[in-house]
Sequence to fold (243 residues):
Amino acid sequence: MRPWRRVLVVLAVSQLVAPVVVSALAGDFLESGATNEALITPAGYAFSLWGVITLLCATTSLAVWRFGLGPSWETSLLVDASVVFVGFSLWLAVAAQDWLWATVAVFAVMVGALAHIMLLLVRHRSDLSCPPWLATLATVTFGLYLGWSSIAVFANVAAALIDSGVSPDAVPWQLVVLVAAAGFAVLLTVTLRGTVGYAAGVLWALVAIAIGAAQRDSVLLAATAAVAAVIVAGATAWSRRVS
Fold:
C-alpha cells in the first residue's frame, strides 16, 4: 500500500501544477470555442471549485500517506484515485487541443473511478481504521470531486456536440442533456446515501448552470437547472433520513 500512497501524493500535487502549465502553453482555452458556447455551460465563477478540489486532494493524499485508511481495499481506492488525478491533467491537455470528444471519454473514466471510490467510502465505512477525521475528509473530498465531475461530463458532451456542428442556441437538445445530468445526479445521490460532499458538488454545478443559462437568456434551461437542484437537495435529505 505504501508505494501507492506515495504515488497518490505525487499525482495530487500534479493536479495543482497542471493548470498552470497548460495555461502557459495554451492560454485561457476554456474561455473560448465550443467549450464555452453551450447554453448549459456553468457560470464562470463555478470553475473556481477546481482550486478547492485540487487543494483538498493534496491535503487528503498527504493525510492518507501519513495515516493510511486501513481496509483491505485501500490499494483499490488508491489506484482509482491515481487514475482520477492523471485524468484531470489529461483532460486539461486534450481540452487545450479542442479534442472535445476525448474530454468526454476522459471525464467518463474519472467519474467511474470516483463513483467506485465513493461506494467504498460510503458503503464500507465501517472497514476504515483511520482517524475519523480522515474518513470524513476523504469522503468529502472525493464526494465533492464526483459531484462536480458527474455534471461536468454532461457539459463536456454538450461542448463536443457543438464542436461537431450542433447549434449552440438550440434549447431542446440541451434540455435533454440537462435532464440526463440531473437524473444521473439523483441516482448517485440515492446510491451514495445522500453524502454531503457529493450533494455539494452537484448543487454547486446545477446552480451555476441555472445562472449561466439565465445570463444567456434561456429561461427554460435556467428554470430546469434550478428545479433539478431542488430535486437533488430533496433526494439528499431523504437519503440521509432513511439510511
Summary: The mean pLDDT is 95. Residues 58 and 144 are 14 Å apart (CA to CA).
